[in-house]
Specification:
disordered C terminus; 176 residues; 6 strands; 2 domains; Inhibitor of vertebrate lysozyme, Ivy; alpha+beta
């Protein structure tokens, strides 16, 4: 019967020890809810519902009318690539709307002032999403500067050789 007071004493000491641990912060911590953070807002492109209406304009007029949103400097291109685009768009033909494969884009094709053999540029804007495709073929090579798989597939579909940078598909305009 001596064990009962001993056992009661041990239980009291254990309870006292646990409460002291809580006061000292040594016991198990209670979980606090994590702060609620909002996911970062993603930039939603503002699509001009009248993109199709710009067919027939040249690239410079389109850039001016669209608030420069589709100008090379607004598309995130570096200084060298911006210059390549402007040089290759020097003799731009009027924009046209191309459709196919479930995609539709407003497409501007241009050639360098000295002719398409010296430079070709394509600026195409997906009319559904407002996303742009920019490609240049010149002495620096044939480069997609602003990729867009959907628009590139549309350009290839509408090219006689299935190439976005096909000089045959670009206007054969020479400087006056």
């Amino acid at each position: 019967m001596r064990w009962i007071p001993f056992r009661a004493g041990m239980m009291a000491a254990a309870a006292l020890g646990l409460s002291a641990c809580d006061r000292l912060g040594l016991g198990p911590q209670t979980a606090e809810p994590a702060p609620v953070t909002q996911p970062p807002a993603t930039a939603v492109p503002v699509v001009d519902p009248a993109l199709r209406d710009h067919a027939g304009e040249d690239y410079a007029a389109f850039v001016a009318a669209s608030g420069a949103r589709y100008a090379p400097d607004q598309l995130g291109l570096g200084a060298g690539d911006r210059a390549r685009v402007w040089r290759a768009m020097a003799a731009a033909e009027a924009g046209e709307v191309l459709s196919g494969g479930g995609a539709e884009a407003l497409v501007f094709r241009g050639c360098a002032e000295t002719g398409c053999a010296d430079g070709v540029a394509i600026v195409a804007v997906d009319v559904a999403t407002g996303a742009a495709f920019v490609g240049v073929k010149d002495a620096g090579g044939a480069d997609v500067l602003t990729p867009n798989d959907r628009v590139e597939a549309l350009l290839r579909l509408n090219s006689p050789t299935r190439s976005w940078d096909n000089p045959e598909a670009a206007p054969e305009t020479a400087a006056p």
